[in-house]
């Protein structure tokens, strides 16, 4: 299914988007990737949504990526005798391992690993940062704090600890079970929550055992500090601005977002910008102007994908939300300023033959009348390198591997077409020309750029570039091989 934009749209599925008709409508409106949130819904619900997506994929002959988002460990306070208490600024409040019901002076925090990592002066944030506590004294089973910002604290509210790296595994026991379940289902991407160090990514990769690509969610200050190593260990990144905005001053988030997006692009790894992008559309058919500007900013920065969460999962206007993102993306990408910004930020290091081939393909496409860049890929690496160049012409990725086509559905500008196994380069050129014509990117008398690797069907061998006509008779007449 041809899109008239390059940035991809990720839509989260949920109660508002769980049947065939709605999910198909979301895909037709512009959703390229569907997110299954493992924090909500049973395995039966997840399996049914997965089945529906694959049915739509078959019905429309359109590769669709499925992203399973693991919940990660949840740090929460215990319960209160009265259900909730008001904490006054300047008051003392104690957190401990005592399971007795809490009151205005204390509550249980059933996470000894937090106490093990705390030091005096550290901050604890409760209820998405609405309450801020400062540690004045701590031990292996308690923390005495001063209330810096007060408010109402109630049963099982979440706790964030921004100042320290917690000795907590990114994968809880629930996550391990969920990971195995969705990998057996056949999802394409795993989003890993609570990443603090590259070792968290390595652990998930070992458990996935090649069944899904690993996407690290950057939502903690520790992950920002060790981002380069986390990026190197990951297949993709999600800039999860919601939690980042809780654990960091909100004014820090926009420059962090910009830096992370550029680093991902330089590494040729897809990056999603997520959280609160069109949040007002949960209840309104129209977004705010600020939200539209926020979506546009992520696109101007060169993000591979932008994501809807509750807007499509539980909102009243899921199709309108996807349509709004599609409209904003098309308008931004038609803006000459967008092209100037994207091309000015093209600073990739070129260290291999494949790097040189894709850079040359982009240069040729932009200096002559080329309609598309067609790349044959097994692992998806060549398509990712072409996408890193952000060419002005469409990218057509041809592969005989359905899993590769699905994973590439997350990457900027990549349009995936299934093809058979190849043995000769002429066959590759013929298939590329046919795909460009059938998908509406070129006509018979147009030209395309074709990149491939010989020998075929071997990952990492991109070593050929050819400018080819789209008319088959001309291909035969100019290349007898």
Briefly say what this structure is.
This protein has helices at residues 20-29, 43-60, 112-117, 173-185, 198-208, 221-225, 227-233, 241-247, 253-266, 289-300, 310-313, 318-333, 336-344, 353-367, 381-389, 402-408, 425-438, 472-478; strands at residues 8-13, 33-37, 65-69, 84-87, 92-96, 106-108, 123-126, 131-139, 142-149, 151-154, 159-160, 189-192, 213-218, 236-240, 271-274, 305-308, 370-376, 395-399, 414-418, 447-453, 462-469.
Task: Describe the model.
With 481 residues, this protein is α/β, with parallel strands linked by helices. It folds into three domains: 231 residues, Phosphoenolpyruvate-binding domains (TIM Barrel), CATH 3.20.20; 77 residues, M1 Pyruvate Kinase, Domain 3; 126 residues, Pyruvate kinase, C-terminal domain (Pyruvate Kinase, Chain: A, domain 1). The chain has 18 helices and 21 strands. An eight-stranded parallel β-barrel has the order 1-2-3-12-13-14-15-16, surrounded by ten helices. Strands 6-5-9-8-7-11 form a six-stranded mixed beta sheet. Helix 5 links the parallel strand 12 and strand 13. Helix 1 packs parallel to helix 12, helix 2 packs parallel to helix 4 and helix 10 packs across helix 12. The longest helix is centred in the N-terminal third of the chain and has 18 residues. The protein is elongated, with a radius of gyration of 24 Å. The two termini are 32 Å apart.
């Amino acid at each position: 299914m041809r899109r008239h934009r390059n940035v991809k749209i990720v839509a989260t599925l949920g109660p508002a988007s769980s049947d065939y008709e709605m999910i198909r409508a979301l895909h037709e409106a512009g959703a390229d990737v569907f997110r299954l949130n493992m924090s909500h819904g049973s395995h039966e619900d997840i399996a049914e949504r997965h089945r529906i997506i694959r049915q739509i994929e078959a019905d429309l002959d359109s590769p669709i990526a499925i992203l399973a988002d693991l919940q990660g460990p949840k740090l929460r306070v215990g319960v209160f005798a009265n259900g909730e208490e008001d904490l006054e600024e300047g008051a003392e409040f104690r957190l401990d391992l005592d399971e007795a019901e809490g009151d205005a002076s204390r509550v249980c925090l059933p996470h000894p690993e937090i106490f093990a990592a705390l030091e005096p002066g550290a901050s604890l944030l409760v209820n998405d940062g609405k309450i801020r506590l400062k540690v004045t004294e701590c031990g292996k089973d308690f923390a005495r704090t001063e209330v810096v910002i007060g408010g109402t604290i109630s049963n099982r509210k979440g706790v964030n600890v921004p100042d320290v790296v917690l000795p907590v595994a990114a994968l809880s026991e629930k996550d391990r079970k969920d990971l195995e379940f969705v990998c057996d289902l056949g999802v394409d991407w795993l989003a890993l929550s609570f990443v603090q160090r590259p070792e968290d990514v390595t652990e998930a990769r070992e458990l996935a055992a090649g069944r899904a690509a690993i996407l690290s969610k950057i939502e903690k200050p520790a992950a920002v500090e060790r981002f380069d190593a986390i990026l190197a260990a990951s297949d993709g990144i999600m800039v999860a601005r919601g939690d980042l905005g809780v654990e960091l001053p909100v004014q820090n988030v926009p420059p962090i977002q910009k830096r992370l997006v550029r680093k991902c692009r330089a590494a040729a790894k897809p990056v999603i910008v997520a959280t609160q992008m069109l949040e007002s559309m949960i209840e309104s058919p129209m977004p705010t102007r600020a939200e539209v500007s926020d979506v546009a900013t992520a696109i101007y920065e060169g993000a591979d994908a932008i994501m809807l969460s509750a807007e499509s999962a539980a909102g009243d206007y899921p199709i309108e939300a996807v349509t709004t993102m599609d409209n904003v993306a098309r308008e931004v990408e038609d803006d000459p300023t967008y092209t100037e910004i994207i091309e000015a930020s093209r600073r990739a290091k070129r260290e291999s033959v494949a790097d040189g081939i894709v850079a040359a393909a982009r240069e040729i496409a932009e200096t002559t009348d080329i309609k598309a860049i067609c790349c044959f890929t097994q692992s998806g690496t060549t398509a990712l390198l072409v996408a890193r160049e952000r060419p002005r012409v469409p990218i057509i990725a041809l592969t005989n591997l359905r899993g590769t086509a699905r994973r590439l559905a997350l990457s900027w500008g990549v349009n995936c077409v299934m093809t058979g196994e190849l043995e000769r380069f002429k066959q590759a050129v013929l298939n590329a020309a046919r795909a460009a014509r059938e998908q509406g990117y070129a006509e018979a008398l147009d030209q395309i750029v074709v990149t491939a690797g010989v020998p075929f069907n071997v990952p990492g061998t991109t070593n050929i570039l050819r400018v080819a006509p789209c008319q088959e008779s001309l291909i035969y007449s100019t290349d007898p091989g």
